[in-house]
Amino acid sequence: MPSRSSFLFIAIALLSAVGEVFAADEAQIVPLAITPATEPVPSLQYQLLPKHLDRRPGNAAVRYERAALQYRPEAKVDTDVAEWLDLPFAEFAQPAQLKKMSTESEKVFAELRRASQLESCHWELPLREQMFFEILLPEVQELRRLARYVALKARREIATKRFDEAVATLQVGYGLARHTAEGPTLIHGLVGVSITGLMNSVLFDLAQSPGAPSLYWALTFQPRPLIDLRPGMEAEMSGLFLSFSELINIGREDSGTVDAPAAVNRLIDTLTGMSGMIEGSPPGGEIIKLSSKVALYAMAAVRKLEMQDYLKACRWPAARVDKLSDAELLLAFTRVKYEELRDLQFRLLSLPYWQTTAGSAAANERLRSAGKKFEEVLPFAALILPAVGSVHHSSAKSERRLDVLRIVEALRLYAGKHDGALPPSLDAVTDVPVPPLDLITGKPFVYALAGKTARLTLPDENRGEKKTLVYEITVQGK
After folding, report:
1. Are 401 and 380 in a shared domain?
2. 45 and 16 in one domain?
């Protein structure tokens, strides 16, 4: 089973599968044939998270695990569910196609509904009981499987005009997404983003279904950001220190109990294992390991004065630095240098994505430069810092998709009041506020009307690539 570190890269890759896939060098065109709508009364009749009166005290993780134990489809069913969710909605909604889908389980969904209504979700990871970067996360794959089941259920309800049931089902899905993201790793946050993407795709289906209610205010009423990456971000920032508490305690007045030489040995053993220098126990593996230790100790000895000066420049009292043993000095330097490189990455998550483009490039270049120049004696930052820029982009893209849905719902309301016509510009939509900025670019959304077709253009859909997503919006029957 993959470790927490492996899952982080897997989770980022999976997010690219949520939504649209791009051709090599062209924009992806997504047609949307929306239906006119009127504002519901009361306006918050529909909500996309469990309402306050439905929420109860309790730990949702227990219920989700119970649901996962009860939902054990064959591998073929998992494959079928993924394929059914990928079908164009017009094809999906055909009666012959709907008859093929028999995966719903009221018992499982009842468990999921109760879980989504609970007020907390504690995944009880063994954060201080084992290496943070080696913690296994079997729950994340189960949560994705359950989310696909929920999305399929909602999609079927939309296809059969059971709109109120579909909204209630989507409440469960969005609740699952937020609960998942309460886990103390960035992987939990990314899987929460991925689950949100599944539910958002179903909302696009609803917007194209005649007779579907307007969900403009339901979307507007959602908390933002819908998926908060901070719990996972803070745990990731502390991951090295959760694994090696000696790094935090070293240099304190009460740190005399730290066995610094033993701690250094443990760090080096971990480092050589993580860097792939030893895979299992190959012939001569112990010799390679020993030579690595010797080289690292030699580097530390040569750079003793440099490490002392660095700590003093970081406002460590000179008297304290000069008292550190060689092993203590290496621990203290490893800690502060790691924090310096780590903070350049993670501090950007506190800013809007569109303000971080230059900063993210600079932080990545700084990390690469530090690796080439061997700034770290024990290069943990180079090995374990996650791709924070990609995480940030995934989060911003998910939030932008919610804004796009708000725009789509605002257009449905406009069409409902203007005989099925679309507005000439987003500024012409005055009955409800339209999201002012594209969260990826920091600029107003690009909207243009040509005849009876509007184009909503989303640049930078894939980070680092000049890929553009374009929604071509028409009104059904007009």
Report:
1. no
2. yes
**Cα–Cα dist 4/186, whole Å:** 9
d(CA 369, CA 357): 18
The residue type at 305? L
Same domain assignment for residues 196 and 278 = no
Domain co-membership, 212 together with 256: no
Domain check: are 189 and 75 in the same one? yes
How many domains does the chain contain in total?
Answer: 2
Query: Do 203 and 269 sit in the same domain of this protein?
Result: no
Give the domain extent around 344.
244-385
Among residues 363, 385, 407, the one where a domain terminates is: 385
| Residue showing tokens 């971000």 | 233
Do 180 and 303 sit in the same domain of this protein? no
Of 336, 360, 385, at which residue does a domain stop?
385
CA distances from 474 to 36, 207, 223, 265, 409 (A): 10, 11, 29, 65, 13
Place of tokens 């719903």: 104
Quote the CA–CA distance of 363 and 349 in Å, as a whole number: 12
d(C-alpha 158, C-alpha 156), whole Å:
5
Start-end of H helices in 71-125: 75-86, 89-92, 95-99, 106-116
Same domain for 88 and 219, yes or no, is: yes
Residue 135 token pair: 């913690």
Token couple for 437: 């900025």
CA–CA gap between residue 340 and residue 373 (Å, rounded): 15
Tokens 């899987």 belong to 191
Cα–Cα distance list, 376 to 85, 260, 297, 307, 341 (Å): 47, 18, 13, 10, 10
Q: Read off φ and ψ for residue 100, nearest 5 degrees.
A: -75, -20
* Amino acid at residue number 470: V
**Considering the entire predicted model, what is its pTM?**
0.89
One digit per residue, the tens of pLDDT, for the chain of length 478 reads: 444 544 454 455 445 444 444 444 468 999 999 999 999 999 999 999 999 999 999 999 999 999 999 988 777 788 888 899 999 999 999 998 888 876 667 899 999 999 999 999 999 998 888 888 888 898 898 999 999 999 999 999 999 999 999 999 999 999 999 999 999 999 999 999 999 999 999 999 999 999 999 999 999 999 999 999 998 999 999 999 999 988 888 866 555 567 889 999 999 888 877 765 434 444 444 555 556 778 888 888 999 999 999 999 999 999 999 999 999 999 999 999 999 999 999 999 999 999 998 899 999 999 999 988 989 999 899 888 888 889 999 999 999 999 999 999 999 999 999 999 999 999 999 999 999 999 999 999 999 999 999 999 999 888 767 789 999 999 997 5
